[in-house]
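Render this sequence as a predicted structure.
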Amino acid sequence: MRLRVAIAAQRDVFRISNRYDRLVDGLGDEFLDEIGRIYSFLKLHPFARRATLGDTRRWPVRRFPYMVLYAVEDETVYVLAIGHARRGPRFWRSRQGVARK
C-alpha cells in the first residue's frame, strides 16, 4: 500500500506538533513519532478500522486527543486530516474527497 497525506493534513500535524512543543519541550516530537507510527501501521493494515463516515475511517492517536482521518482507495491510503477527537463531524466531512488524485 502507498500512503498519501493531503497538504491540509500535513499542516494539521505540524500545527499540533508546534503547539505541543510550546507546552513542553520535546512533546511535539513525541506527537510526530506517534503519527509516523500510525502511518506505518496504516500502510500495512489499512482496513483495521471500519468506515464510519462514508468511506472514511478514523484512527486514534495514542497519548493525544486526536484522530487520523483516512480513506482507502485501490492500493492507496489517503490521510485527509488530523483533528481533535472531540471535534464535530462537520470538520471530518469537510475533508472527505480531499487529495485523492
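Summary. The chain has one domain: 2-95. The mean pLDDT is 89.
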